Amino acid sequence: MISGTWETAPEQYRERGGVPLMACARITAERIGGRHTPASCTGHYPHVDVPEKLNGLLAAFWDQAA
């Protein structure tokens, strides 16, 4: 499970939107036996905001799975 870290979002938006979404991602990953990996400098759209970072995280995951 990959989620943004929301540090670039306005404080209230991060507090009321980002923090709960990060908690949901972490809990979902735990419950399905997965792993939660936060992607910094992004919120909702890591594939748009930081595509290189997201691709690096995915490549590392696929390398570990192989």
Describe how the helices and strands are arranged.
Blueprint: E1 2-4, H1 11-31, E2 37-39, H2 46-49, H3 51-65
Parallel strand pairs: 1-2
Describe the structure concisely for a colleague.
Helices cover 61% and strands 9% of the residues.
SSE order, as H and E? EHEHH
Q: Give the overall silhouette.
A: flat
Helix content: 55-70%
Give the neighbour order of strands across the main sheet. Answer: 1-2
Which percent band covers the strand fraction? 5-15%
Can you describe what's shown?
By secondary structure, the chain is mainly α. Helices cover 61% and strands 9% of the residues. It is built from 3 helices and 2 strands, in the order E-H-E-H-H. The protein has helices spanning 11-31, 46-49, 51-65; strands at 2-4, 37-39. Strands 1-2 form a two-stranded parallel ribbon. The chain is flat and about 40 Å long. The mean pLDDT is 93.
Defining traits:
66 residues, 3 helices, 2 strands, two-stranded parallel ribbon, mainly alpha
